[in-house]
Amino acid sequence: MTDPRLETLLQSCPGLRLKTEPADLEHYGRDWTRRWTPAPLAIALPGSVEEVQAVLRWANAHKVAVVPSGGRTGLSGGAVAANGELVLSLERMNKALDFDAVDRTLTVQAGMPLEAVHNAALEHGLIYPVDFAARGSCTIGGNIATNAGGIRVIRYGNTREWIAGLKVVAGNGELLELNKGLIKNSSGYDFRQLLVGSEGTLGVVVEATLKLTDPPPASNVMLLALPSFEVLMQVFAAFRERMRLEAFEFFTDRAVHHVTAHGAQYPFAETYPYYVVTEYAVADEAGEAAALAAFEHCMEQGWVLDGVISTSQAQAQQLWRLREGITESLARYKPYKNDVSVRISAMPAFLEETQALIGDAYPHFDVVWFGHIGDGNLHINVLKPDDTSDAEFLGQCEHVTKLLAQVLQRFHGSISAEHGIGLVKKPYLSSTRDAAEIALMRGVKQAFDPNGLLNPGKLFD
Question: Could you tell me the EC number(s) of this protein (predicted)?
Fold first, then answer.
């Protein structure tokens, strides 16, 4: 530790843990994008709210930029520290603090992994319903920072629907207690919701009071094989009309190719172009009958070619792995990712136009599609060919993303459905937000972080 600024940090906060080894700097200085070379000043691991405040006061005094860090499972470069920033990792602040049985809330530290939150809620006979494949490594603070969605948005909504209160350390080190668990609170601006999705640019979430709910009724999982992209929305409409959907996820044959090579089990005798995995409530025999009726109707229409229904929890997990294992199975290819959304009603026309755009732009690339069709969210993963340089690949992908952003603008969609803007999507923010909105965002940033030290360069410059 040769930087004298770090000596003053430890003097002002004696209990703070600091990491400066090269391997730690590389590990904590990047997220799943792997596009930028990490180069942080150091890694600070506070163990309390007071230590977080001390770090930010020190940062303001010494004009050191700070990158808040959760599980770093993001895909937009939102947790990258490539320019000498101090990474502020909350991984030591990972405990459940309080459960209120009357309010049905669970208060946790921001570094608690999502899966641990799920388990803590279950100990009280309740659930925290936000869920996605990275549950074991992502943290609740990171989920809040990006307003994470996941596989059950169709039933439960995004993270912001489940935040009853927040404790946040603003850019100047001041501690804010936002909403304090109230259900009704019309006393001015709701800064709690402003912080949800702010990507660590306004403040550092240190504690969250989460709403819990009853466990869902018994459910089954069905895997459907589809003949074409065009029938996706007809199948979704048929199932949504006849049953209570918990999730409705689609993916392509290329996704199946990669995820089965990574160990997932494939249940059909032949392969198909497109797939849907759906989970639905089956509280009684009527629920099962409705699911079979929906399946048979889609088969009669030619919208579904084959299907399998889980008969056990183990089989349900196997079917879900075909969807949830996709991102992990693609990680070694360092794919270029698009994470976009439009209104559900606009999805058929958007899918048609986007499929044509991607097909023309990447005729020889391996493109893996999957998404949360039930909430209008589509993921497009482009894999780099071995004979294409990184620079050439990135340039071609960013050209196509610029065209895709123009399509999204016409459809009033979003360039980032659930991964945030970060560094990756920053050039395309104006396709989703107009100039007046972006100007207001800058004003809000100035109010919360007057010296511009929190996650600089993310969202906008």
Answer: 1.1.99.39
